[in-house]
What we know:
Blueprint: E1 3-11, H1 16-32, E2 36-44, E3 56-57, H2 58-66, H3 70-86, E4 98-99, H4 103-114, H5 118-131, H6 139-148, H7 153-162, H8 166-178, E5 186-189, E6 193-196, H9 201-215
Parallel strand pairs: 1-2
Antiparallel strand pairs: 1-5, 3-4, 5-6
Amino acid sequence: MPKPMKIDFVSDVSCPWCIIGLGGLEQALERVGDLVEADIHFEPFELNPAMPAEGQNIVEHVAQKYGSTPEQSAAARKMIQDRAAEVGFRMVTSDQSRIYNTFDAHRLLHWAGLEGRQSALKHALFDAYFTNGENPGDHDVLVATAGRAGLDEATAREVPVSGRYGDDVRAAQRRWHEAGINAVPAVIINDKYLISGGQPAAAFERALRTIAAEAA
């Protein structure tokens, strides 16, 4: 009999390691098959909450934030692109890519969760930003992405404009910060087990099987 597992996936739309971690988790869930019945919730985390609407060049951003040289930045992007490809995700980033504000994207994800389309929207937002180079803070981009995820575009346009779910997103972010989450991806299983970082499928599979065995 499958073991029910509540999985909170704390992440940001602009976090490349979150794609790798999500891909690893999804591959692991396929491998364990009927052993686990997963209920995944995508929880908000902003890596750059003060980022202006126009965003910032990625090379400039990582230089300011981490002290990376352009060469180090390019090497890191190539490594991350390779890791993303291992989980089936095509990441197209360059030294012309930009980092954007993601608060409105998180509000849309909150709404998508209420509509039962959160996973679809999460994947569509990753595609929009990392594959297509679109701005996940732009309202037209959000509306089109919501449509591709099977959501009502009229409502999707109203959510960012109205300010709906802003308090919910901020409250969720505070809750995770208070719980000690200060980097993403962070995967919390059954409110008890924490798996940090963009782990490969094998690591997630071991964790899922161990937790399922303990539940038995």
